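Q: Given only this backbone (291 positions), what sequence would you predict?
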């Protein structure tokens, strides 16, 4: 009976969170929706996108002679790319992500879930296939897939203090997006990213931090404790740790940026006090650059 009651309480909690996440993500996605077709890029397809000037190497059959006849230059029709891409989202659900320094700020987990859901909405409605790594399913299209991703995002994590990315059996030459605070084991991040790069998988790392984690605005006697309480440190002069802490944080950011550069990925850091639109636009743009 106790187990049944606990399961019901968890189910009710998920049911309460799901509509809010979907509504907020729909609103956020709408602010950056780029027309009916989402991302538009040149490639193989049937739908006309734009003309470009012909260049050396363009076959004669590619030239639009009717358009070229109206000027002194030759023009080629560019078609919009229509082959669906596969994109896997990994969103850190560890306890570290539950931190929020102020009631007026979302937790890192809330911001990460919002960005991931809005990204999934934009990509799937743009014709791409998307999945969430924790679902254990290949990327798919459709509104049903969006619902499954939303359910996966609001599901409880494994209780770990810090998260480690995993892409499972994502196909080679696909795309991936990691959203985390990346404050845990850097070796695990490096291994997964290097493994992904070896399979031709490119993507983006989005680091989400609370502004207090950046400024380290502590003074006097302070007890620092991880969200899972596995790490604890007490000091009488917290302010004296600020410079050393900020140096280590800067070093971690530098390591992430260098890792992204060496593997052909993209990296950026955002704070929960930043507008969500800015982060979403960057994520959306990074997927475009990965093609």
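A: Predicted residues:
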């Amino acid at each position: 009976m106790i187990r049944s009651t606990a399961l019901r309480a968890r189910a009710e909690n998920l049911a309460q969170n799901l509509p809010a996440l979907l509504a907020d993500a729909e609103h956020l996605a709408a602010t950056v929706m780029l027309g009916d077709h989402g991302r538009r890029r040149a490639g193989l397809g049937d739908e006309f996108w734009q003309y470009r000037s012909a260049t050396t190497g363009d076959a004669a059959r590619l030239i639009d002679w009717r358009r070229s006849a109206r000027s002194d230059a030759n023009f080629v029709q560019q078609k919009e790319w229509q082959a669906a891409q596969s994109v896997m989202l990994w969103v850190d659900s560890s306890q570290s992500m539950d931190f929020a320094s102020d009631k007026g700020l979302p937790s890192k987990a809330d911001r990460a879930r919002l960005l991931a859901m809005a990204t999934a909405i934009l990509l799937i409605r743009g014709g791409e296939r998307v999945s969430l790594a924790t679902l254990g399913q290949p990327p798919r299209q459709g509104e049903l897939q969006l619902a499954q991703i939303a359910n996966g995002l609001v599901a409880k994590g494994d209780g770990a203090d810090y998260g480690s990315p995993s892409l499972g059996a994502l196909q080679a030459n696909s795309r991936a997006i990691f959203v985390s605070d990346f404050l845990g084991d850097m070796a695990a991040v490096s291994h997964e990213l290097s493994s992904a790069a070896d399979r031709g998988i490119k993507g983006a790392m989005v680091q989400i931090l609370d502004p207090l984690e950046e400024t380290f605005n502590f003074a006097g006697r302070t007890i620092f404790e991880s969200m899972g309480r596995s790490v604890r440190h007490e000091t009488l002069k917290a302010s004296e740790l600020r410079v050393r802490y900020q140096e280590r944080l800067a070093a971690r950011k530098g390591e992430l940026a260098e890792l992204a550069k060496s593997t052909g990925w993209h990296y950026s850091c955002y704070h929960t006090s930043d507008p969500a639109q800015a982060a979403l636009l960057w994520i959306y743009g990074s997927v475009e650059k990965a093609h």
